[in-house]
User: Fold this.
Amino acid sequence: MPNKSAWFAIILAIFLSSCDSNQVFDEYKSVPNEWQKDSIISFKVNPPDSIKPYNLFVNIRNTNSYKFNNLFLIVEMVYPHGRTIKDTLEYQMAKPNGELLGEGLTDIKENKLWYKGYDKPFVFDEKGDYNINIQHAMRNNGDINGVDKLEGITDVGFRIETTSK
Assistant:
């Protein structure tokens, strides 16, 4: 049977997750040790509404061992009827002095990065399952080939929020 501190942690997690009224979908997948160049992290989403607008985010958890000040991602959205949209996105991950951006008091920082909805809310206009595929596209300066093993990324997530627009 869990001890008192384990019960407290479980209750706190439930309480904190119930306070997030904008959340429609929020899921993370762990990256074991290093994010391999060819490793694609996938999420299957079935949005509740095909008319309502949403904001979409890629969430990244990283540690102090992340040595870049930016992050390039290839994000692919596969619609239920087969249409595919693929975006190459760049995010700033550190200040010019090297201090990592993101939320967190420990050496793990959480970054909520815009995917769709920042200029106008996104509408899932087809009913059914959408597949979101996320892959890193990092390169060292001057190198043609990508970084084979990206260190410092611990988790990759995808989040959908309702919007008031």
Observations:
- The radius of gyration is 17 Å.
